[in-house]
Amino acid sequence: VQLQASGGGLVPAGGSLRLSCAASGSIVSINDMGWYRRAPGKQREVVASVSRVGDTTYIDSVKGRFTISRDNAKKTMYLQMNSPEPEDAAVYYCNAEVMTVGPFGSHTGRYWGPGTQVTVSS
To answer: Which end of the chain has fewer CB atoms at under 10 Å, N or C?
Structure first.
């Protein structure tokens, strides 16, 4: 299973940016998915998560500004970042719990994608 995040870059404060995370591999199903971030000198934190049926959670600091969504048919998750603030600058990582199938049957595991840098200019 591979998770590939994209869409990071430089965005002005108050602008908008959309991150994508596409999953590939011998995937049977994807359960919950989430976006995490790590800013310099800080611990990694979960930003938002979305269940298979679309239930979402957010950390307080991004509520009302960020929107997480997913397209199960495309095995892709998104994070729409509106009105980002300098404090949102970080490396963003996607994470997913994925059920795969192999020669020994099915397996459920949690996978990480490589990070994508988000820089917010003030």
So the answer is: C
